[in-house]
Design brief:
Elements: H1 2-22, H2 39-43, H3 57-60, E1 71-90, E2 137-142, E3 144-146, E4 151-153, E5 158-165, E6 172-188, E7 201-217, E8 222-241, H4 246-257, H5 266-269, E9 287-295, E10 300-310, E11 313-320, E12 323-335, H6 337-345, H7 352-358, E13 368-378, E14 381-391, E15 394-403, E16 410-415, H8 420-426, E17 439-443, E18 449-458, E19 464-473, E20 491-501, E21 507-517, E22 520-522, E23 546-563, H9 565-586
Antiparallel strand pairs: 1-2, 1-5, 1-23, 2-6, 3-4, 5-6, 6-7, 7-8, 8-9, 8-10, 9-12, 10-11, 11-14, 12-13, 13-16, 14-15, 15-18, 16-17, 18-19, 19-20, 20-21, 21-23, 22-23
Length: 592
């Protein structure tokens, strides 16, 4: 009988290894999912649906609450450190714009056309004709939004807390937790960082501040669970803006050509010099855009099932619902003096104001601010996994996850008033802003993702557990929609950790992880959200004429502590007594 049981164990192990080998590496996923929830899960490559991690079962599989002690308290902290390096290279086949501006240095000859590039560039030019981003790279560091203070800080941290309780002998277990299942934040350092034209500061996070949960043991082998999350979502971004295209180059050419043109009376009544107020060069900064939005109540729910027919084998599945978000916040645009001069020029004379009104263009250059709204969704997810314990001292886990990222088709930001930079974009073919020019739409068209993770636990004795894990997370972003603001590359998650159990049933889990992104290369004209030179793609391509490269590395350190509530109360009592003793010792007026 025992021999047959061992044979069955080995068959399950072989099945698990086959799943690992056959899992498709060509699917697509996002980096920001469940990276700061549980130390044990992180160390196992997030392969824990069939063996959920303590009170954080509320997230991974709420049916796992059934297998916790009658009372349990857990608390943890995860520190992610994300580093991103982005480089831009000039396309040798890129011809100059009509004003002579080009990503390549003077004297460069296009191998296709034979045209010499930048022949008219002089050291004393009053505007930059060479792309300052060409040949440059920028590095990023972590960033995080604090909901209470409504501001950002230069590091990331993911605190968690969970509690569960069950009446002795009952089939019902109740729990409560708070954690952050989705989070990413980056900032670009340096005033001349080339990435600033898509993201000087960027972040998006979803914090579940209250997640009541319940599990029910149907029988000795099967349990069900449900958790309901009440969350807050925040999105923030700050970026400089520029417009490298032939239209902006034309305004500069005409502005330069007419700076000394002045026909008395006629010029002032028709087209006052210089035309377009001197114009705006393709590589000149036009404005700085900042947005901060929040949704303080975006609910969700998780449904899980756990089947454990044998002590050495279990199967788990969990459905995590879509999270619909309706964000509201503030936006602010600070325009450059040169851009303001071009707008003011449209309000001069007798003809220009009429023409501007017909084209829905502004006539007074001024900074803008107001309210902005954005509706989006975090995807529904299904994750399933198995846990096999072929030997008393070893456990192998495997998870596969599907996420419905295709639900995110676009980013649509609706401003409370017309935005001048969008009003100018309409004359270059942008039609998504509507007749009021108060809507900014960025196409995303994310793809659904299938990712997998596997973990290994070694238990050399009763109090120590050693862990290893690996997870593959392909990107959900298509190359033709890639950008330096929102997109993350394919991620390989390598992890290790350990768990220590004390005699008082205190469990300490520690995890360390390296997340290595695959290098990304998007050639010039490879993405309509970043470096397209197509005149019909005006929003938003600040790196037209440049090749894009990205390298991304992240490090994660995490710790979780779990204990019975009675032990927690005992520790709190001892700490309170210690505080009282210190107070009495330091207080000279205390008679005790």
């Amino acid at each position: 009988m025992r021999r047959a049981e061992n044979t069955l164990r080995y068959r399950h192990l072989i099945l698990l290894l086959l799943c690992l080998m056959l899992a498709s590496p060509d699917a697509h996923a996002m980096f920001i999912e469940q990276m700061a929830v549980s130390a044990r899960a992180i160390s196992l490559g997030n392969a824990c649906t069939a063996d959920p991690p303590g009170t954080m079962s509320i997230h991974y599989n709420p049916a796992g609450l059934t297998y916790l002690p009658d009372t349990a308290f857990g608390q943890g902290l995860t520190l992610p450190f994300v580093f991103q390096k982005i480089s831009f290279e000039a396309d040798p086949r890129m011809d100059p714009f009509m004003d002579g501006s080009a990503p390549n240095p003077p004297g460069h000859v296009n191998p296709d056309t034979g045209i010499e590039n930048g022949a008219d560039v002089k050291p004393d030019d009053s505007y930059p004709k060479l792309d300052p981003c060409a040949g440059k790279s920028g590095t990023s560091g972590p960033r995080m939004f604090l909901p209470i203070l409504n501001q950002t800080i230069p590091f990331l941290a993911g605190p968690t807390m969970g509690i569960s309780a069950r009446k002795s002998g009952s089939r019902w277990t109740f729990g409560y937790a708070n954690y952050a299942p989705f989070a990413v934040g980056l900032s670009q350092s340096g005033a001349d960082n080339p990435v600033r034209f898509q993201a000087k500061e960027l972040g998006q996070q979803h914090l579940i501040y209250a997640a009541p949960a319940v599990s029910y043991r149907v029988n000795e082998k099967f349990s069900l669970g449900l958790s309901v999350g009440m969350g807050q979502t925040a999105t923030y971004a700050t970026l400089d803006q520029r417009m490298p295209n032939q239209m902006t180059a034309l305004t500069k050419v005409l502005g330069e050509a007419t700076k000394d043109l002045n026909i008395p009376i006629i010029s002032q009544m028709t087209l006052p010099p210089p035309w377009f107020g001197g114009g705006v060069g393709p590589y000149e900064k036009v404005s700085q855009l900042s947005m901060l939005m929040r949704d303080d109540f975006s609910p969700s729910y998780n449904i899980g099932a756990l089947y454990k027919p044998k002590e050495w084998f279990s199967f788990g599945v969990c459905y995590q619902s879509e999270i619909k978000v309706e964000q509201v916040g503030n936006w602010k645009v600070q325009y450059s003096d040169q851009f303001k001069a071009m707008i003011d020029w449209l309000g001069q004379g007798n003809i220009l104001p009429v023409t501007a009104a017909m084209l829905n263009l502004p006539t007074r250059g001024a900074n803008q601010s107001g309210y902005v709204t954005n509706n989006m969704s975090f995807p529904q997810r299904v994750q399933a996994g198995i846990a096999v314990k072929p030997f008393k001292f070893m456990k192998v886990l495997f998870d596969i996850n599907w996420a419905d990222w295709s639900v995110l088709k676009e980013d649509r930001f609706i401003f409370d008033r017309p935005a001048d930079f969008l009003r100018f974009a309409t004359i270059m073919g942008y039609t998504q802003g509507g007749s009021k020019s108060n809507t900014m739409v960025v196409k995303r068209a994310f793809e659904d993702t299938i990712s997998f993770g596997t973990g290994l636990e070694i238990m050399p004795n009763d109090w120590l557990t050693l862990r290893l894990g690996y997870e593959y997370r392909p990107t959900s972003v298509q190359d033709e929609l890639f950008d330096a603001m929102y997109a993350m590359p394919n991620i390989h998650h390598y992890a290790a950790g350990f768990g220590i159990a004390t005699k008082k049933n205190i469990v300490i889990d520690v995890a360390f992880a390296l997340l290595k992104g695959e290098d990304v290369y998007i050639p010039n004209n490879g993405s309509i959200n970043m470096n397209s030179t197509d005149f019909n793609r005006p929003v938003y391509n600040p790196y037209a004429g440049l090749h894009f490269r990205e390298e991304m590395t992240a490090y994660i350190a995490s710790i979780n502590v779990r204990m019975p509530i009675s032990t927690m109360k005992e520790h709190m009592h001892h700490q309170l007594e210690m505080v009282k003793k210190v107070y009495h010792f330091l207080n000279p007026f205390d008679g005790k």
